[in-house]
Write a structure and sequence with these properties.
4-stranded antiparallel sheet, Rossmann fold, alpha+beta, 21% helix, disordered N terminus
């Protein structure tokens, strides 16, 4: 090393094991006699990007619908950042930053661009999606 001194930065001690970003434990979803998801368990770590692949009918969409609370799981538990979110309302799930899109996206042609965008953010406003047509003044105040 040509007589120079090597300087090493001290390593940080490993942090306590953090809970996974998303954990699904023994999740099941049934529609009557049809089992869409059967005792599924997995974890997704922090700072991890992952994909979910599988054939048609494997339960991928049903899983996303359970995590986003479009569906109520029959059994099991879903945790996000260590918090059990299994029975959270979908609007509370959205506030955590969990969202889903649908495969067939379509704009409502009778609405303006702004109204279409606002439709996607109805969880964040004070006017509910069902009340919006009947309370146009409150909706307009949210547009501002």
């Amino acid at each position: 090393m040509n007589g120079s001194t090597a300087h090493l930065s001290p390593r940080k001690a490993p942090a306590a094991t953090a809970p996974p970003k998303l954990a699904v434990d023994n999740l099941s979803l049934r529609f009557g006699g049809l089992v869409a998801i059967n005792a599924l368990s997995f974890q997704v770590g922090r700072d991890v990007i992952c994909g979910l692949i599988g054939p048609n009918g494997a339960g991928k969409t049903s899983l996303f619908n359970c995590v986003s609370r479009l569906y109520d799981p029959t059994d099991g538990r879903i945790t996000f950042d260590g918090t059990d979110i299994t029975r959270y309302r979908s609007k509370d799930i959205a506030k955590l930053g969990i969202a889903r899109t649908f495969q067939n996206l379509a704009l409502m042609k009778s609405l303006t661009v702004l109204q279409n965008v606002m439709l996607g953010g109805y969880h964040h406003g004070r006017t509910s999606l069902l009340r919006a047509p009947f309370v146009p003044v409150s909706l307009r105040s949210e547009e501002a």
